Amino acid sequence: MYGERVWGLLVLIADIWALVHISQSGARTGTKVLWIVVVIVLPVLGFILWLFLGPRSSRA
To answer: What backbone torsions phi and psi does residue 41 show, to the nearest 5 degrees?
Structure first.
C-alpha cells in the first residue's frame, strides 16, 4: 500500500514536470496540446514517450 502511494506520487511529479516543460517548449501550439493530452490521458506511457520524442525546450 505504501509503495503504491510512492509510485503514484512519483508519476504525478513527473507528469507535472513534463507538462511545465511542454508548455515552455518552442513547439507549435497544436503540438503542445497534443503532448499535453497524451501525458494526461496516459500518465506513465505519455511521460516516457514525451521524454524521448517530445518537443525540446526553446532554451539553449
So the answer is: -75, -40
